[in-house]
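Comment thread on ticket #2218

A.B. wrote:
> Attaching the input chain for the structure job we discussed in standup.
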Amino acid sequence: MQSWFNYPKFRAVIPATGLPLNGGLLYFYQTGTAYAVEKTTYSDGALTTPHTNPVVLDSNGEALIYLSGVYDIKLTDSTGVLQWTMTGVEGINAFSFSTWEIDALTAYGAGTAYTKATIDAALADLGAVIKYTLTLRPGTWAYTVAADYSTYNNITFLTSPGTVITSTSTILFPTGSKFYLSNFVSLQAAVALLSTTKCTIIVNRDYAMTADATIPATMTLEFWNGAQITTTGYTLTFAAGASIDAGLWRIFAGSGTIVGPTGEVPLEWNNAGTSLSMAATVESYILDEDDMASDSATKVPSQQSVKAYVTASSPTTIAVGTIILWPTGTVPSGYLECDGSSLDTTTYADLYAVLGVLYGNADGTHFNLPDLRGRFPRFWDHAAGLDPGSRTDRGDGTAGDVVGTLQAEAFLAHEHTGSTATLTGEIIVNTNGSGGSDPADFLRTAAQTTQTALTQAVTPTIASDGGAETRPININLMAVIKY
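C.D. wrote:
> Ran it. Output below, let me know if you need it in another format.
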């Protein structure tokens, strides 16, 4: 939150937008009471008309406030969200603390444009003792004459995002001044105007380069989160001593060239398409994955570059169409069960490019997966002569010794051996003529003879045994295919 008191005028601005803090609430307390005991402020210089506490800022984020003595101050937005607190503020013609911000346009008035006279008047009143930040509200700064403010060691300039600087004359600013890139028509224009000032340019928006540019040694580029410079077609050079102030996010985009900067460069700053040339003192370096095959001892690839390179070249990458055996009944991510399903050729375009309609298709926009449920795989004979059985249609009308064809169960032709048994005996006739049944009548005597010999051949029967199929010892696994 940017705030300033050109006593008795107070004003607060939202830095991200340059818009006033409309409806902001300014609370005043007795100093040293931990913001617990309120203290009265006034709307007139005679201190006769008290303000309510808090003081509500108008649509310009402003209020006219007169103080009596020393205050602790707290600022919130209109919903009560705290913006900042400050202690020991004294109500005199200028505040007694060492650094504050002055709104040059409001205090000295110049319509909607800054002139050299506007700024000169503000600087003359501020003097050379108390340190100030001279804040320039949104407006146009179109200098037509040269100006040198570099001798004001107690003052720094700070523009607002809505300030427009179109000056073509040379302007020297105090060390430490800050400007927004949106203040200028181009990065080149900013560099041309500020090249001899030790200052910071705040990159508060995406910017596409329109010409080559060189950041001088006196300059720092400070990036807001999300703001990028697109370099496509151009070269951005950082002179030795130039610096970048940014968090760990991408600040460069496009396919141009960046030379420098010196010092350590976080890998996160780089865009994969940007080519960076390393200055002699650079400790870390960012390069595109296309350069990964190079053999530099000083270039460090970005995380994105490494991932792209590994993905493209790693031997552990599983090819689409690879079939693996899975130990659970849940299909892993990136795979499909080999169950003969019909798939859309567009949704599974990569897998369709491998399988085609080898395993059949319902129509011109679908193709089938191989169906491996309940089957053992047998590796392709490929004319080795080890698979003598016939093989049937795999789904597309192809049969024979071809990958994907099917084969029914079969037994190797074989024989079972066996033998017959012969039973022998005699039929003995009763020779005493008694016709009785007494066993003694059938006892063989010397006088008796065997009338008939008996021989009977017996053929054995082999009983069936076993289950519904012939199989080896096995375990159920699920066949899945990479898509």
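A.B. wrote:
> Thanks. Noting for the ticket: The CA atoms of residues 321 and 355 lie 7 Å apart.
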